[in-house]
Write a structure and sequence with these properties.
Blueprint lengths: L3 E4 L3 E5 L3 E6 L4 E6 H11 L9 H12 L3 E4 L14 H4 L10 E5 L38 H13 L4 E5 L7 H13 L4 E6 L6 H9 L3 E6 L4 H8 L4 H14 L4 E7 L7 H8 L8 E5 L14 H5 L10 H9 L7 E4 L4 E3 L10 E2 L5 H6 L3 H5 L22 H8 L27
Parallel strand pairs: 6-7, 6-12, 7-8, 8-9, 9-10, 10-11
Antiparallel strand pairs: 1-5, 2-3, 3-4, 12-13, 13-14
Helix pairs in contact: 4-5
Pfam family, one: SPASM
Keywords: Iron, Iron-sulfur, Metal-binding, S-adenosyl-L-methionine
InterPro entries: 4Fe4S-binding_SPASM_dom, Aldolase_TIM, Elp3/MiaA/NifB-like_rSAM, Radical_SAM_PqqE_MftC-like, rSAM, rSAM_sf
Length: 433
């Protein structure tokens, strides 16, 4: 008898202002539902009997049963949801968790390129995580290998599983990096990722990368030498980068390619894909952008829509990611950035949010005595324009970029789903029934 209906244990119902979303953490699907269906499911989740259900509503519930999203019951039923990690009720009285899953380390801000949109010493942020020639005080960069080794040791004790080296161009400090790669491996940090422009790769560097099983994220700026010269000020550089990427493929080095889209290369993306696709799986080629705010003349008007397209950041939402995003910020949560001068940040791109400095205190003391916990627990439920969106646990949020655009920690600019807050507008949904 179809007396009661409940969503299955691996399905979460999330309310929005004018619609809802069912997160099936078994399949990873996000299922969008309108306001009427949301109200019906909220009643079902409260074990209200299906006494006066319409044929249309029954058909909707039958569809969910067919999708293995829910079940009918003869009596009221308690369904305990799948959960990963410490339950929120326990976490309220438990000690703070200072585990760091991923640490971004900036060995230097120097670069061998002189990109027109990345002026040295300019702290204005126009992009997500990647290279930038941040302002720095002369002589303040950490050069002492023992100090960097101590930092890696502290991170390892915090259960750090990944270290990501960024710049500037990290391979300008190859001698230092080689020693740190060896030390990271000795400390049990099993994954190392290096952001690079790809121009300095050679046999010695490739042997080191393979020896320590590191991965590369190679930034591509165009499809020909002329575009590279206009952007970087360096001649014949695209040919060099393309040759080096072909070496990565032949040497079986793990790497991802990132095309940084801007006004000077916006018409070359298809050509760049055609050039680089033979060397890697197309799924490992991604687009990143220069963003327009607060004031940037080099962003691509052609790709402006994609910069605001939150659905492009949607992915499969498993139980681990759902539970993490419900408790922690997708970027600030259990992540740190360490600048070349030793500043500790919740994100390497959030330069205004300095928590402390490793030259003065150890990392644990900095985390305890700062706003670190506030940042890592800055979920979408804390962000005004996100907390009323039912998709909030399924999209990626770059706080550093949003803060740069709005001058507000909880601001939101780059989102086409802000219309979800208006009941008279309809969104193009990922999965809709």
């Amino acid at each position: 008898m179809k007396r009661h209906f409940r969503l299955n244990a691996y399905c979460y119902l999330v309310d929005g202002l004018s619609k809802g979303c069912i997160y099936n953490v078994s399949t990873g699907d996000m299922i969008s539902i309108d306001e009427d269906k949301l109200n019906l499911l909220n009643k079902c989740e409260s074990n209200i009997p299906l006494d006066r259900i319409t044929d249309t509503e029954l058909g909707f519930l039958d569809t969910l049963v067919g999708m293995s999203v829910g079940m009918y019951y003869e009596t009221p039923m308690y369904v305990e949801r799948f959960y990963v990690g410490q339950h929120p009720a326990v976490e309220m009285v438990a000690p703070s968790n200072y585990a760091v899953g991923n640490a971004f380390i900036e060995l230097d801000t120097m670069c061998n390129f002189d990109c027109v949109f990345c002026k040295e010493g300019d702290n204005t942020l126009f992009r997500k995580t990647g290279c930038k020639r941040w302002a720095r005080n002369e002589g303040s960069t950490i050069r002492d290998i023992d100090q960097w080794k101590d930092i890696l040791g502290q991170l390892a004790k915090l259960n750090c599983q990944q270290v990501t080296f960024v710049g500037g161009e990290p391979f300008l400090q190859f001698s230092l990096m080689e020693k740190l790669l060896a030390h990271a491996k000795a400390q049990g940090i099993y994954r190392v990722l290096i952001y690079t422009n790809g121009s300095l790769l050679n046999d010695e560097i490739l042997e080191c990368i393979k020896k320590y099983n590191a991965e590369l994220n190679v930034q591509v700026l165009g499809s020909n030498d002329d575009t590279y010269r206009k952007i970087t000020g360096v001649s014949e550089m695209h040919s060099k980068v393309l040759d080096n990427v072909s070496l990565l493929a032949s040497d079986n080095v793990r790497y991802t390619l990132t095309f940084l889209v801007n006004r000077l290369n916006e018409n070359e993306i298809e050509d760049a894909y055609a050039l680089y696709s033979p060397f890697t799986n197309p799924n490992r080629i991604r687009l990143e952008f220069l963003y327009p705010l607060p004031h940037n003349d080099f962003y691509s008007t052609k790709f402006l829509g994609l910069m605001y397209d939150k659905t492009s950041s949607f992915g499969k939402v498993d139980v681990n990611s759902f539970c993490h995003h419900a408790k922690y910020h997708n970027c600030y949560g259990h992540q740190l950035g360490i600048t070349a001068e030793g500043d500790i940040l919740p994100c390497i791109m959030s330069r205004k949010l300095v928590l402390g400095n490793v030259r003065k205190n150890d990392i644990v003391s900095i985390l305890k005595d700062s706003d670190y916990e506030q940042y890592q627990k800055l979920t979408k439920d804390e962000i005004d324009k996100c907390k009323q969106c039912s998709y909030r646990y399924g999209c990626f949020d770059c706080r550093a970029l949003e803060m740069s655009a709005t001058d507000y920690l909880k601001g939101l600019e780059y989102c086409n789903l802000k219309s979800a807050l208006r009941s008279d507008e309809v969104l193009e949904d990922l999965v809709s029934i």
